Amino acid sequence: MRLEISRREINLEKLRRIASTGIPDGGGLRATAWKLLLGYLPSSHDLWETQLEENRQKYADMKEELLLNPSEHIWKEAKDLSSTQQHEDNDADGPLRRHEISVEDHPLSLDKESLWRQYFQHTEIVDQIDRDLQRTHPDMPFFSAETSFSRKNREAMKNILLLFAKSNPAICYVQGMNEVLAPIYYVFRTDTDKQNAENAEADSFSCFVRILGDSVDHFCQQLDNSSSGILATLSRLSDLLKVNDEQLWHHLEFTTKIKPQFYAFRWITLLLTQEFKFEFILRIWDTLLSNTFGVQDMLLRICCAMLLCVKSRLLSGDFVANIKLLQHYPDDINLEYLLQVAQDISPDTSSYILSR
């Protein structure tokens, strides 16, 4: 892995093959590999520095535009205006000119274009994000401790989620997005390269958007019944299971009447981040992100493999036992075996192949 990443021109097909078998922890290998697999870094090593600089500056500009509260916007404009006027008048020692506040800039304005009105509309989202971040991996000090480092991590993740909400008003923020963001931010923030770690917020935002690219419609209730909505994806999982093990499919669908909606909704929307230990999640994502056909294709295959790996228990269980099993997937599962089962499932059977 280290050798492949250090090449001047990286063979992405070879990188995918290596990454799919698991990326070693430590040394920043996973952070760099994920950025390459997601297309955030170009395959040419010579372009990395320029690309990162441009992307990080774009993020900084977006933060300044969308995350400053109106009073900060107004003060910044006043400061810029004052500086310009003082320069024009050549009167640096003169009094600061009063900045006129327009009707649209007034905190009590009801105008649709009012910065304050837009700002107050997002306070409820901020509160929801804060609550969700407090519950993100509460067993990991990285996310949950009351240290300066942990608080900065939560603040950075809040910025990312709020920026996503503001730049995607049709989707906005949906509970659970914090769980999808957590592995990305953790991997980038713990990069051994100091500069990369310090820019984890900017890099995580871009990669978070890319990861959600295949599945963002799953978070939109209005699209549940569309071809790209969650119900269609759950149906594809059912079809995939039927092709690979009709006996198990029939037992779940007809004998115990357990539909994928009862257990796989969370699996799919949150990219399995609630089903396994954190170190397992990172390993699973190595395989997810390295799949040639896209994240969603491999995600469905892993979900199908999860069912196949507990087949005997499901066939002997009733509705209650099977629901409990699938909603609290066993953590003593052989993960490498499960991922191999998923790899062996042909993507052609899923009828849902995404081109990268």
User: What percent strand?
Assistant: under 5%
Low-pLDDT windows of residues: 91-99, 349-356
The number of helical segments is 20
- Class by alpha and beta content: mainly alpha
Give the biggest sheet. Answer: none
Terminal Cα span = 22 Å
Q: Which bin fits the share of residues in helices? A: 55-70%
Please state the overall shape, judged from the principal axes of the Cα atoms. globular
What is the typical, i.e. mean, pLDDT?
87
Radius of gyration using CA atoms only? 24 Å
Series of secondary-structure elements, N-terminal to C-terminal: HHHHHHHHHHHHHHHHHHHH
The overall strand count is: 0
Brief write-up:
With about 350 residues, this protein is mainly alpha-helical.
3D structure, described in words:
The structure is a single chain. The protein has 356 residues and is an all-alpha fold. It has helices spanning 2-6, 12-20, 29-37, 48-66, 70-89, 115-121, 123-134, 141-144, 148-167, 177-189, 194-198, 200-212, 230-244, 246-255, 264-269, 278-289, 295-308, 311-315, 319-327, 335-344.
Any chance you could write out the topology, listing elements then pairs?
Elements: H1 2-6, H2 12-20, H3 29-37, H4 48-66, H5 70-89, H6 115-121, H7 123-134, H8 141-144, H9 148-167, H10 177-189, H11 194-198, H12 200-212, H13 230-244, H14 246-255, H15 264-269, H16 278-289, H17 295-308, H18 311-315, H19 319-327, H20 335-344
Key features?
356 residues; mainly alpha; disordered C terminus
